[in-house]
Amino acid sequence: MTTMLSVSNLSKVYEGGFTALKAVDLDIRRGEIFALLGPNGAGKTTLISIVCGLVNASTGTVKVGGHDIVTDYRAARSLIGLVPQELTTEAFESVFSAVSFTRGLFGKPADPAYIEKVLRSLSLWDKRNHKIMTLSGGMKRRLLIAKALSHEPRVLFLDEPTAGVDVELRRDMWNLVRGLREDGVTVILTTHYIEEAEEMADRIGVITHGEIILVEDKATLMHKLGKKQLTVHLHEPIDTVPEALAAYALERTDDGHALTYTYDAEREHPGIADLLADLNAAGVGFKDVNTTQSSLEDIFVSLVKQ
Ligand SMILES: Nc1ncnc2c1ncn2[C@@H]1O[C@H](COP(=O)(O)OP(=O)(O)OP(=O)(O)O)[C@@H](O)[C@H]1O
C-alpha cells in the first residue's frame, strides 16, 4: 500500500481564534475512494482547503505524493484536482476554452483530445462552445469537475459533490469516480450524505469539531458497528412488556402493536429462538417477525452523538 496523501498534526486556528482543525493525522492510500464524513462546520472544507493550498495551516505538515504542500508547492499542487462547491468565475468564457485554460495554469501542454474525452465523459461535449453563463446549474457542476480533471490529477477532491444535484448527475458522478479509481486516481470526497459514503467509499473517516474521530474500511465499519433489530408484530397490542422478558430490553412501539429487540449481528447466539419461546411462555402472541440492519447513517449518528 502506498500513501498518496499524508496529513500530520494539522491544526487550523482562524483569525478571531476559532479552532477549525485540531491536530489531525490522516493517511490516504493511492487509488482509494475515501469519504470524509461530518456534520456542518466539522472542518471538512478547511482540511481540503489546506491540502489544496487555499488556506494556510496553523501547525502540521501535508504531503501529496511525497511532496510537501508548502516547500514543494508546485509539484504537490499539480497532482491535485479540486471540485469546489461553487463556480465563481469566467462567465463569458466557453466551456472548452475554460477547461483548456485551467489545464494550462498547471503548466501542462495543450491536449484537445484529452479535453474532449473529459467533456464527453461529463456529457458536456455538446456544450463545448457555449458560454458558461448560459449553462444550467447542473451543467456548471459538470464543468467544475471537468476543470478539476483538466490537468490529469492523481488525487481528486470533491467537496460536497452531490449537494443539490439531480439523480442523473449524481449517478454520472459516481460512475465517473469509479472510472477514475480504475485509472488509479485517489478520490477524496466530503459529504454529509451518508448514502454517498455508503455507495462510493472504500474507507470512511468521520470528522466532528475539527477532530477525526474514526477512520475505518467501510465494510469493517458496517460490520463492527452494525446492529440488527428484530421486530415482532403482535396479535394484540400490549401496554407494558411482561417482566419475564426484561432481559431482552425490548422496546414497545407507540401503539403497542410491536416489540423491537436489538442485538449484535456478530454474536453467534443472538437469542432469537429464546426470545420467541419466552414470548410464547409469557402469553404474548405474535403474527409476524422481521429483521433490519442498521445503516451507515445510524452508525454515523451514534458516533457523532458520542
Ligand atoms: N475564514 C474563516 N474564519 C473563521 N472561521 C471560519 C472560516 N472558515 C470556516 N470557519 C469556521 O470553521 C468551522 C469549520 O468550517 P468548514 O467549512 O471547514 O466546515 P465543513 O465541515 O466543511 O462544513 P460544511 O459541511 O458546512 O461545509 C466552522 O465553524 C466555520 O464557521
Plain-language structure description:
The chain is an alpha/beta fold. The protein has 2 domains: 3-223, P-loop containing nucleotide triphosphate hydrolases (Rossmann fold), CATH 3.40.50.300; 227-294, Alpha-Beta Plaits. The protein contains 10 helices and 14 strands. It has helices spanning 44-51, 73-78, 95-105, 112-121, 137-149, 167-182, 194-200, 218-225, 272-281, 296-305; strands at 3-13, 19-29, 33-37, 59-64, 67-68, 80-83, 155-159, 186-191, 203-208, 211-217, 227-234, 251-252, 258-264, 286-293. Strands 6-7-8-3-9-10 form a 6-stranded mixed sheet, sandwiched between helices. It has a 4-stranded antiparallel sheet with strand order 2-1-4-5. Helix 3 packs parallel to helix 5 (137-149). The longest helix is centred in the middle third of the chain and has 16 residues, at 167-182. The protein is elongated. The chain binds adenosine-5'-triphosphate. Residues 14, 16, 18, 20, 38, 40-46, 192 line the site of adenosine-5'-triphosphate.
The total of helices stands at: 10
Identify the overall geometry: elongated
Strand content: 25-35%
Q: How does the helix and strand content classify structurally?
A: alpha/beta
Residue stretches low in confidence (pLDDT < 50, at least 5 long) are none
The proportion of residues forming helix, as a percent range, comes to: 25-40%
Helices and strands, in order, run as EEEHEEHEHHHEHEHEEHEEEHEH
CATH topology of the largest domain: Rossmann fold
Q: What gap, in angstroms, lies between the N and C termini?
A: 32 Å
Name of the CATH superfamily of the largest domain: P-loop containing nucleotide triphosphate hydrolases
Secondary structure tally: strands: 14
Sheet with the most strands? Answer: 6 strands, mixed
